[in-house]
Write a structure and sequence with these properties.
Shape: globular
Strand content: under 5%
Helix content: over 70%
Number of strands: 0
Distance between the termini: 28 Å
Number of helices: 8
Length: 198
């Protein structure tokens, strides 16, 4: 419990430091990564409790009874819940932009994916790294394809209205925000359910 509290405090402290960065395109990714890493570590710590002595490396996910699984998922949800306060700093600072509330999605990603990756990696570090890297790779390639589409749309205009030199700014522009919502929606409505099903 002390370790989890220390991770929550450290995440809040680092988020406050990151909040001092003036450039929103730099600040938001830092805060997002801090939340994601903190929540993934908490999820891995809670899920791994009591499993190592009783399960061998060949244990399959189906061998963990549903009652134990449900109990651990509830504890993970309660463990990462305090981190839901982190985006509220940014939400207030940017004039209550609803798009920034989607930062809470990384908490859901951690809850849904870390247990699966822990069962595969059998280590806290492996679960955290695989959870973050797997979705990051999917997100990166999807965002790159959509950003290239935005660049083409802007090039076709007589006068460009969106700064396409900065990816994050382009996705938050009113006319292209739908792409940002599409990326977030895919992560939450496709990736997370698939991880839970696995």
């Amino acid at each position: 419990m002390k370790t989890i509290i220390a991770i929550i405090v450290a995440t809040f402290g680092l988020a406050l430091l990151a909040d001092q960065v003036q450039e929103i395109g730099v600040r938001i990714p830092y805060i997002l990564l801090l939340m994601w890493t903190g929540s993934a570590i908490i999820a891995a710590l809670i899920f791994s409790e009591g499993l190592r002595p009783h399960y061998s490396a060949s244990t399959q996910a189906t061998e963990i009874d549903s009652q134990t699984w449900a109990y651990k998922m509830r504890r993970i949800g309660m463990g990462v819940l305090p981190l839901a306060l982190v985006p509220l700093l940014e939400f207030r600072r940017t004039g209550h932009d609803p798009a920034l509330l989607l930062m809470h999605g990384v908490l859901i990603v951690s809850i849904c994916s870390v247990p699966v990756w822990w069962l595969l990696a059998r280590s806290i570090i492996g679960a955290v790294v695989l959870s973050i890297c797997s979705l990051s790779l999917l997100w990166h390639f999807s965002a790159w394809a959509l950003f290239e589409h935005i660049v083409r749309l802007e090039a076709a205009k007589e006068v460009s209205t969106v700064d396409t030199t900065r990816t994050f700014h382009a996705f938050l522009a009113p006319e292209y925000r739908i792409f940002f919502y599409l990326l977030c929606g895919t992560a939450l409505l496709v990736y997370c359910p698939v991880m839970m099903w696995i």
